[in-house]
Write a structure and sequence with these properties.
The structure holds 2 protein chains of 2 kinds. Chain A is built from 28 helices and 18 strands. Chain A is of the alpha/beta class. The radius of gyration of chain A is 24 Å and the shape is globular. Chain B has one domain: ACP-like (Non-ribosomal Peptide Synthetase Peptidyl Carrier Protein, Chain A, Orthogonal Bundle). Helices cover 56% and strands 0% of the residues of chain B. Chain B is built from 4 helices and no strands. The relative contact order of chain B is 0.18.
Chain lengths: 658, 84
């Protein structure tokens, strides 16, 4: 795992060494072990390395036999031994044992077609000296990040936006449209980022940059379809799943350093850890986070898993004030406003892993997305069922099954009203975003806190929906509703939030690499093929995965009611003593100075929250609070107080110039 | 009744709209306009019970009673009459 950065300038000769050094210096947390740069004509490539495979000779940049193709690479190619063997058979010569080196040779063989052969998680930049062209690429679902700024013949790119901003000629300004989108669906969509003029290479895409310009192309998409698979008994599907995930796990243990695992107490991570423990490594170390706040704590289930697996287990306890105190660091790494605080505990967790001298962890990420684990999928199903008979006095009661923690005895009042909430837009079942529209509607209420001048022209929810719907695949409406809902969840939430703000960024902040067996493309493609009734059976989520896990993990974990991973919000910032930066960032003066939000409304929210000692009840107000505070921090860290001087020295940097 | 209405309106504006009453008429649906979310209703009920010394029964927690200023006033007047 690593960080990459680069500058390509076709306009004029540019002295790049100093800037590249600072760019890499911005992201040395991604790669603390070594650093290197390559300078040639219009191109400058930089790399910061976290050594995991081929510790001795794997330093980058890496080149082909005649030094005409150079690559910098962040991530892992898990099928590299097979690809390497194949390339050697075809006559290629290797000078390292790293997975990186296969990239230059595979490029010689296949050009941009190469990416569909890779099984991995990656962001790649490859310079072809002969063609004078740059090839950028990201893995299929966007596990590894890649951002760029492009201006008339000059391209600046990096694993994180802060590397791009090391170039002081690049403007740093928030993009109102994207910020408004985040306050609607949690994340930026498409190529956009929170910053104007900064874009991301989309997951499953590569991009070519040459004198002729910049061109992005798709090489993979989530293969949902309207075609029903050939009828096959459930057992066969289950067997295939077990074989695939076992192999996905096996190749994700390829490393020259020890590999640990996260254990949340749910099915997904316990299943992965069980595979490792039973088949590959019986001295597994596992890591989890527990919460002081019992509403969020899953500790008792983690204990069940640990007892069954007998792993060497490490726990970090997360208090509300820990989240409050660490939040500015979290935003330094997410580089985007977030309307949840759930990334923060994962920052603490990766710190625990690092402290125990691990660099790599396997996790269960992705199973809820590809095997339909979330309530949003059930909610879609119940609402469609209810919409067929809206006057039914019984149908809506299925919702109580979905949200037992909301529809509790003590909370009966909220529960009754909640039914009204779910009835909104009930009949609009032909909307392509039927599954998500309620959530987006509810979240977009937080936009009321924006200053009207800031979001002028960004459009309302209806415009957001039509903008989003125009990006959907042409046969989308022919798919089963569950596949549609999963596609939206995977494209928006998984790639742009779960794997970035909550995934890559929180792990890399502590130089930890996460690996996700469920996101092996063979597993994803399999999951897209599984009949919907085996993904969700009735209202039972992850049906096929539960069948696969039966006998392998404790029955109590299969039977438990799924608990969404959440973390407290308002109490982290307003329970006394409140962290000092909170009042500074949310002061009328600071809000007014930045101009993103309405200072009177923010003052009202602050008053309400501090009046209740940080116990805001409303979900929406909690989201607004996290969103406003993180936007203010984003401005503070990346606009008002950003320094182009890198936080890390690069005394170890090696320079290549041929 | 106008005093009741003023109290209700002020509470809605201050507590849920953070002082900005733009777009709030007597008929505005709190749910549809997203002025109150699912948990906000607890704050509303708490306010009604404290301010008007009434008890809101679970069966009364329906949009017909609570989902706009107008509905609230009608509901409250019935409720207060009964109490008197």
């Amino acid at each position: 795992m690593c960080g990459i950065a680069g500058i390509i300038n076709f306009n004029q000769a540019e002295e790049k060494q100093d800037l590249l050094g600072r760019m890499i210096g911005m992201i040395r947390h991604r790669g603390p072990d070594s650093a290197g740069i390559y300078l040639n004509g219009p191109a400058g490539l930089g790399h910061a390395r976290l050594s995991i495979i081929d510790l001795q000779t794997g330093d980058q940049p890496i080149h082909n036999e005649d030094r005409t193709v150079w690559v910098i690479f962040n991530g892992e190619i898990f099928n590299y031994p097979e690809l390497r063997k194949d390339l050697i058979d075809r006559g290629h010569h290797f000078y390292t044992h790293s997975d990186t080196e296969i990239l230059v040779h595979l490029y010689e063989e296949d050009g941009p077609e190469m990416f569909s052969k890779l099984n991995g998680q990656f962001a790649i930049a490859l310079w072809d000296k002969t063609k004078q062209g740059l090839l950028l690429a990201r893995d299929r679902v966007g596990i590894r990040p890649l951002f760029y700024h492009h201006e008339q013949g000059r391209l600046v790119f990096g694993s994180e936006i802060k590397a791009v901003f090391a170039d002081e000629t690049i403007p740093r300004k928030l993009d109102p449209q994207t910020i408004a989108d985040i306050f609607t669906c949690w994340t930026p969509i498409g190529v956009s980022t929170p910053f104007q003029g900064i874009f991301q290479v989309r997951p499953g895409h590569y991009a070519l940059f040459s004198k002729n310009g910049f061109l992005e192309k798709s090489y993979w998409h989530l293969p949902y379809s309207s075609l029903e698979p050939k009828s096959r008994p459930l057992e066969e599907w289950v067997d295939e799943l077990n074989v695939l995930v076992k192999d996905a796990t096996r190749i994700r243990l390829r490393a020259d350093v020890p590999v640990g695992a996260y254990l949340s107490g749910g099915i997904d991570s316990t299943y992965i850890s069980s595979l490792v423990r039973n088949f590959f490594n019986n001295r597994l170390s596992t890591f989890s986070v527990s919460f002081a706040d019992e509403r969020f704590n899953e500790c008792s289930y983690q204990e069940i898993a640990v007892n069954a697996l007998q792993t060497k287990h490490h726990v970090i306890n997360c208090q509300d004030e820990d989240i409050g105190n660490i939040f500015p660091r979290v935003i330094w790494h997410t580089e985007t406003p977030i309307i949840r605080t759930a990334p923060a505990p994962l920052y603490l967790l990766s710190g625990l892993v690092r402290k125990n001298d691990f660099k790599v962890v396997l996790t269960g990420e992705g199973a809820d997305e590809i095997f339909a684990g979330y309530n949003i999928f059930k909610e879609d199903k119940v609402r469609r069922f209810w919409a067929r008979n809206p006057d039914s006095k019984i149908r809506f009661r299925l919702l109580e099954k979905l949200y037992p923690y909301i529809f509790t005895k003590e909370n009966e009042k909220a529960g009754k009203f909640l039914t009204g909430f779910f009835k909104k837009g009930l009949h609009q079942t032909d909307s392509p975003v039927y599954s998500h529209i309620l959530r987006w509607q509810n979240t977009s209420q937080t936009k009321t806190f924006f200053h009207p001048d800031f979001i002028a022209g960004t459009g309302d929810l209806e415009q957001f929906v039509s903008r989003f719907a125009s990006t959907l695949p042409h046969d989308f409406m022919n798919w089963k509703p569950l596949s549609r809902a999963q596609f939206i969840e995977n494209t928006v939430f998984m790639s742009n939030y779960l794997l970035s703000s909550q995934g890559d960024r929180m792990a890399m902040a502590n130089s930890i690499e996460g690996r996700y067996p469920f996101l092996d493309y063979r597993v994803i493609e399999f999951a897209c093929r599984v009949p919907v009734k085996f993904r969700m059976n009735g209202l039972e989520e992850k049906y096929i995965l539960k069948k696969a896990a039966k006998g392998l993990i404790p029955e109590a974990l299969i039977k438990r009611v799924k608990q969404p991973y959440r973390a407290p919000i308002s109490s982290c910032f307003f329970r006394k003593p409140s962290p000092a930066y909170v009042s500074t960032m949310l002061s009328e003066h600071a809000i007014q100075k930045n101009g993103y939000f309405d200072e009177k409304k923010v003052a009202g929210l602050v008053k309400k929250s501090s009046g209740q000692n940080g116990m805001l009840l409303s979900e929406r107000e909690n989201m607004a609070l996290a969103g406003i505070l993180s936007t203010q921090l984003l401005d503070h860290l990346f606009i008002s107080n950003f320094s182009q001087q890198a936080p890390y020295p690069n005394e170890d940097m090696v320079i290549f110039t041929d | 009744m106008s005093d009741t209405k003023e109290k209700v309106r002020t509470f809605i504006v201050e507590n849920f709209m953070f002082g900005n009453d733009e777009g709030l008429s007597d008929d505005t649906s709190f749910l549809e306009e997203g002025i109150i979310d699912s948990t906000g209703v607890l704050e509303l009920v708490d306010f009604l019970e404290q301010t008007f010394s009434i008890k809101v029964d679970d069966e009364e927690l329906i949009p017909e009673n609570l989902d706009s200023i107008k509905n609230l006033i009608v509901y409250l007047s019935k409720k207060l009459q009964r109490a008197a």
